[in-house]
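Before our next group meeting I need something from you. Please put the record directly below this note.
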Amino acid sequence: MVKVFGLKIKFTLITLSIGLISFGTAAFLASRWTAKEFEEHYQERATLVWTHIIHDLESSMLQEMHGEILRTLDLYRTSQGVEEVRIFNSKGEEAFVKQQGPRDPGVEEALRSAKPVHVEIQRDENQIAKYIIPIQNKPECRSCHGKDMPLRGALVLSLSMKEMEADIGQLKKRFFILFAL
């Protein structure tokens, strides 16, 4: 009788261990996949924001409403999660500002390669996703910006990752609580 009871306990412990390991692995993988989805969502959000900024700037320029550009940039600068919005001309000089900020080596790289640059930086305990987007010289813009210039400049958009990190932290906490239960 003792051997049967010992086998039942061993079988129960093995089954319980396998179940816990399986559930733990599933919870870990699910939290990683979901975190990846959050990152993709924030990347899509950044793409949407910079697309709108460039569109709004182009519209103001085509309508020769250059005064609207500063207001448009200020509007985006005050949006939740936006840390920085700056426009640079094709020479790498900041444009459409009341006071120029420091040069950005990422702008020079984006203008040289004609490809977006994405870096993550730490600023005052806050993780920042910085996007530097080359602004193409479209046919309708060439009358003012020249025909031989492939780029008109670059947009720098920096977004705080604090909200995303908090969302991922909450998600991991929920998975841990679920696993513990």
